[in-house]
Design brief:
The protein is of the alpha+beta class and 158 residues long. The protein contains five helices and seven strands. The strands form two sheets. Strands 4-1-7-5-6 form a five-stranded mixed beta sheet. It has a two-stranded antiparallel sheet with strand order 2-3. Strand 2 and strand 3 form a beta hairpin. The longest helix is centred in the N-terminal third of the chain and has 13 residues. The protein is globular, with a radius of gyration of 15 Å. The mean pLDDT is 97.
Length: 158
Amino acid sequence: MNRVGIGYDVHQLVEGRKCILGGVEIPHPVGLDGHSDADALIHAIADALLGAVGQPDIGYHFPNTDPRWKDVPSKIFLEQIRELLRGMKVTINNIDATLVCEAPKINPHIKAMKAVIAEALMIRLDQVGIKATTNETMGFVGRKEGIAAMAVASVETP
């Protein structure tokens, strides 16, 4: 059976943090605030995958109250979700994600992001789609206060 899940995540931009998106450190004067590395793109993808198989969200599996996940690279979340799906005999068909931010520029980093995500999930590069857009200076994203990400995942279940 083909199943689809959707994920959404947002993190505030703050000084003193690295800007990690899609598992890639992007040069930027501010980074994303959160318990782990706050990688909004990977968090949205994680929730899409978990939703596709009827599992609780990323916060349930990797709670921000657990010190094990403090400053952890979010790529580890994808690797653990990959193993959860493997145990359920689920195959990932594809991932499609969009980052919404005014800055930094995302396009120069998409190829590297796709490589990190494909490797973590053990899928092909062409199974990962990543796009970026702005919020046309509107709202918290438009004011450069945060970055949002959304993702869908298609999986095949037995």
